[in-house]
Design brief:
The strands form six sheets. The protein has a four-stranded mixed beta sheet. Strands 4-5-3-14 form a four-stranded mixed beta sheet, covered by helices on one side. A four-stranded mixed beta sheet has the order 6-7-9-8. The chain starts with a strand and ends with a helix. The radius of gyration is 21 Å and the shape is globular. The protein is an alpha+beta fold. The structure holds shikimate-3-phosphate (S3P). Shikimate-3-phosphate binds next to helix 1 and helix 5.
């Protein structure tokens, strides 16, 4: 589906977004693992989280979904049942990788598959550490899905993470949580820590690394949670507000976890007027309201250590960068090549369409010049964050623009167009 966006003058009003996708995935998984009934409020309505729910249904869990609230009947320690068919993770890397850790500790065989994009993404990064833990896990010869996991005797480890990835970290934590004896994981670059926070794991932060301790004592028990709203979805609206004149929006109950707020910090450094109000803590996660005002931006340098914190927001930060003083440049972001699309390619190809001079590197890109205002058809490459980033760029262009295959936004925010229309007063 081609989605057309008209140029917009300003946006105003209040925005409520559904629950953070990363936290929702984990809440669903931990509720499924717990022995009894859990309630998840403000759960993400994304297709990705539905992929997680449908995998756990196949493993014997019952879910009752009413609007944004989910009641989960968890199966308890090793209570999952052998699925009748393959577990299909759709487009969701978080589903495929985290569930691999859980399934490595079960007493039955399972096979994990995914859509075309997910089937090209690297899985060796979880297969290798899980094998070190004794798991009988096999990806196909390219190190991609499908993954087959057979019963095995897993053992505790002391392991230093080789990739800065919260998905890899969470996969091995979720395997280790099935063992009486403690495992220790060492993370050299801080990545999102929702798994540790929700499970209340013992962590020790030293100057250049984090040590995470996990054993069966940490196995989830039934809980009730209100998931804070998704800061990664909010980022598109924040940038649109900053870059349009006389705009002012309030986004309520946003997750302000320190491993996710890099986008707000960078936009503030760029000169963005962004205020945080009503800050509080819910189930270990920081939450608050964000007020955003139109601002004049200038580009800043983005350091290597902040990359994992902004990894999902780089597409929209690049859009902000082309309207800011100076050139937008990013390096140390090779991970972008193995996301839902090769995001370096997807971004560079689309930016070339509007007349920018694009310098592509293996680990990033640099943008020069000004955006032509000819009406343009952008490609989403089936990647939700590319689709929304170029939806925002379209709205900032004098003659508007369109995005091909826009339906992929359902992967993280099916309400994107409706929310834009509300803020425009349509
Ligand atoms: C996620 C972690 C990140 C992020 C993805 C969600 C998670 O991936 O890009 O959208 O929920 O753990 P990596 O940990 O592989 O970088």
């Amino acid at each position: 589906m081609i989605q057309k966006f008209e140029n917009i003058d300003s946006i105003k009003g209040e925005l409520f977004l559904l629950g953070d996708k990363s936290i929702s995935h984990r809440a669903v998984m931990f509720a499924a693992m717990a022995d009894g009934i859990s309630i998840i409020k403000n759960c993400s309505g994304s297709e990705d989280v539905h992929s997680t729910i449908s995998c756990f249904e196949k493993l014997g869990c019952k879910f009752e979904i009413k609007d944004d609230q989910i009641k989960v009947w968890g199966k308890g320690f090793k209570g999952f049942t052998k699925p009748n068919s393959e577990l299909y993770a759709g487009n969701s890397g978080t589903t495929a990788r985290l569930i691999s850790g859980i399934l490595s500790a079960q007493n039955f065989e399972s096979v994990i598959t995914g859509d075309k994009s997910l089937s090209q993404r690297p899985m060796k990064r979880i297969v290798e550490p899980l094998k070190l833990m004794g798991a009988d896990i096999l990806a196909n010869e390219n190190g991609t899905l499908p993954i087959t996991i057979k019963p095995s005797a897993i053992k505790p480890v002391n392991y230093k993470l080789q990739v800065a990835s919260a998905q890899v970290k969470s996969a091995i934590i979720l395997c280790a949580i099935h063992l009486e004896e403690e495992s220790i994981f060492i993370e050299q670059t801080l990545t999102r820590n929702h798994t540790e926070k929700l499970l209340n794991l013992k962590t020790e932060i030293e100057s250049d690394r984090t040590k995470i301790y996990v054993s069966k004592n940490d196995y989830p028990k039934p809980f009730e949670i209100t998931v804070p709203s998704d800061i990664s979805s909010a980022a598109f609206f924040i940038v649109l507000c900053l870059l349009t004149k006389n705009s002012k929006i309030l986004i309520r109950n946003i997750s302000l976890n320190e491993t996710r707020t890099g986008v707000v910090n960078i936009l503030r450094q760029m000169g963005g007027k962004i205020e945080i109000e009503n800050e509080r803590e819910e189930k270990g996660e920081r939450v608050g309201d964000i007020r955003v005002y139109s601002s004049k931006l200038k580009n800043v340098s983005i350091s290597k250590s902040v990359i994992p914190n902004i990894i999902d927001e780089i597409p929209i930060l690049a859009v902000a960068g082309i309207f800011a003083e100076g050139n937008f440049k990013i390096n140390n972001a090779k991970e972008l090549r193995v996301k839902e699309s090769d995001r370096i390619k997807s971004l560079c190809n689309n930016f070339k369409k509007v007349g920018l001079t694009v310098n592509e590197f293996e680990d990033g890109f640099e943008l020069n010049g000004t955006v032509s205002n000819e009406e343009t058809l952008f490609e989403s490459y089936g990647d939700h964050r590319i689709a929304m980033a170029f939806g925002v760029l379209s709205m900032l262009m004098k003659k508007g623009g369109s995005v091909n295959d826009f339906e992929c936004v359902g992967i993280s925010n099916p309400q994107f167009v409706e929310q834009i229309n509300n803020l425009c007063g349509y």
